[in-house]
Amino acid sequence: MIKFAINCVNFFRTKSKLQKLQLKFYSDGPIKLEKVKNLDLKKKIVKKILEFYKKCDFLYNNFEINENLKISGLWKNYLLINKKDQFETYGSGDLEKIILLHENMFYNSLIKGLWSYSHYNEIKKDYTALILFLRDVELYKIIFRNFSGLPTSDRINKWGYREDKNKFHFLDISSNSQKNLIINSLNLIKNKKKFNILEIGGGFGSLAERLHDDEKIQSVTIFDVPSSLTIAYYYLCSKFGEDKVDLINSKNEIHSKLNLNLKKIYLIPSAFFDEIKKYNDFDLMCNFASFSEMGFKTVKYYLENLPESVKLIVSSNSNKPTARKDTSHIEVIIDNFPIPKNFDLLFSTIQTPFFSNWRYKTKVWFKNLATND
């Protein structure tokens, strides 16, 4: 009853806020196969996904991997339940069904767990979630003056809000803020003009998309679970093409394809993270929101196995020991992360936008001068 009453109050608050910000809801709507553009390219992308799916089990059942990188317990159950449609559609091998699953990712279950505020099916009635988003939009405008930097790829049908020609969805605010934080942090590294980014947990590729578009960034390498990597692969290839995005399915492919001198995005299963220490051209490692969802030992493993060349660590993670919904897992707070001792804390603040202030804290660490070039 209390939630219902609050939601009713927020109905009027959102109406006022939308008018003040001059925003209107938009939706491209789910797409049918005959309307899909560049269908031949999309079929090639899906064939690559199916090849990956056959060689890399999505729960790592066909690999001998480090204990800290296994998909098990609550995390395994979450994937089996929430990624059921994805697994079953891939299992069918039907190219057209898989294309439509990805083309409509912002309207179906693919985006679940990779999204903020509320899903498409709920947002028109969830005014409490909407008011949180609009507060973030308002704060974003105060910081960045306008919304011109928010629009991203128009290759996939989306929904969200628009101000004139500026269309943006719920993740654009955070991914653009993260991109700006990374680009500004890279100014600390002198005598270098192009940079290589290592991201642990990349979602559907929203941040990677923005980083790849920036002239300062040479390459972006993402380590994540396979079910997220294939979503990111389809999304990013739809915009940049197959020649700019590699989906890697084995340790051997890492060594044959990973070239940090190329302007590319590399998508690699987290099971192979121990191989990345062999590459010493990475400049910055980032993680947003997912470290806290892992166990402390897993976070420790990632941080202890970074390439020696990494000079910056940028992260936004839990500010309070919050219990994850429907589980017994208590999130690891960012203040307790076992950051390597040769990194100094340069920056720490509650994360903007407003909605995340109580939830997340942002920190930037820089490698000690004694260990820097």
Describe the protein in words.
There is one protein chain. With 373 residues, the chain is α/β, with parallel strands linked by helices. It folds into two domains: 2-30 and 117-170, no CATH class; 189-371, Vaccinia Virus protein VP39 (Rossmann fold), CATH 3.40.50. It is built from twelve helices and eleven strands. The protein has helices spanning 2-21, 39-55, 73-82, 84-92, 95-103, 120-123, 127-144, 172-185, 206-213, 226-240, 251-257, 296-304; strands at 24-27, 159-163, 166-168, 195-200, 217-224, 245-247, 264-269, 284-288, 312-318, 343-350, 360-367. The strands form two sheets. Strands 6-7-5-4-8-9-11-10 form an eight-stranded mixed beta sheet. The protein has a three-stranded antiparallel beta sheet with strand order 1-2-3. Helix 11 links the parallel strand 6 and strand 7. Helix 1 packs parallel to helix 7 and helix 8 packs across helix 9 (206-213). The longest helix is centred in the N-terminal third of the chain and has 20 residues, at 2-21. The protein is globular and about 55 Å long. The N and C termini lie far apart (60 Å). The model has no long low-confidence stretch (mean pLDDT 91).
Features:
single chain, 373 residues, Rossmann fold, 2 domains, 3-stranded antiparallel beta sheet
How does the SSE layout of this entry go?
Blueprint: H1 2-21, E1 24-27, H2 39-55, H3 73-82, H4 84-92, H5 95-103, H6 120-123, H7 127-144, E2 159-163, E3 166-168, H8 172-185, E4 195-200, H9 206-213, E5 217-224, H10 226-240, E6 245-247, H11 251-257, E7 264-269, E8 284-288, H12 296-304, E9 312-318, E10 343-350, E11 360-367
Parallel strand pairs: 4-5, 4-8, 5-7, 6-7, 8-9
Antiparallel strand pairs: 1-2, 2-3, 9-11, 10-11
